[in-house]
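Sync notes, pocket subgroup
Present: LS, DG
LS reminded everyone that the earlier model was apo-only. Rerun requested with FE2/S2 (inorganic) cluster included. Inputs:
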Amino acid sequence: MRFFAFNKLLIRYMITWLTLIIKRLGNVLTTVLTSQEKARIDAQIQAHQHMPGALLPVLHAIQNDLGYVPEEAYPQIAHALALSVAEVHGVVTFYHHFRRHPVGKHVLQICRAESCQAMGAEQLESHIKSTLGIDYHQTTADGAITLEPVYCLGNCACSPAVLMDEELYGRVDSQKIAEIIHEARAAS
Ligand code: FES
């Protein structure tokens, strides 16, 4: 009896470890950069590394160029700015603005701050999530749209507000968001 209980425990441990290893492997595989991406990161580092407090400008430039700041670039950034990889990692993870994973062709941000909440942002958010079939920080299956929360877009007078890429929209309802999504997909 004890033998079977021990075996059961062993199998459970093995499954847990295997799951962790597969997840880890998945993360490694998804962060492999192409030589072109590496060159673009290098170009952004070179263009901004001499600015005062260069880390933030470098991170912004990389995100603007690639859509996110790949973890694989941390050592490259750290070396160029004479920082530790932990420091770069700390700043990227501290600011919600920085994305650590690739995004779709368009990024749709929904304001979740007070004024928008008071004007129905929560219902709008559920509607958008079910329309796109994704949750926050996910991308639609066609790679067109990534959904992100944001906390005040400075458009409180026209709540609820959303930002599609660089375009700000106010008083958004289900009809308006359908148009916004349609336009973004058509432009892809
Ligand atoms: S609270 Fe949504 S734009 Fe300010």
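DG: Residues 17 and 23 are 10 Å apart (CA to CA).
LS: Residues 19-30 have pLDDT under 50 and may be disordered.
Action: DG to write up.
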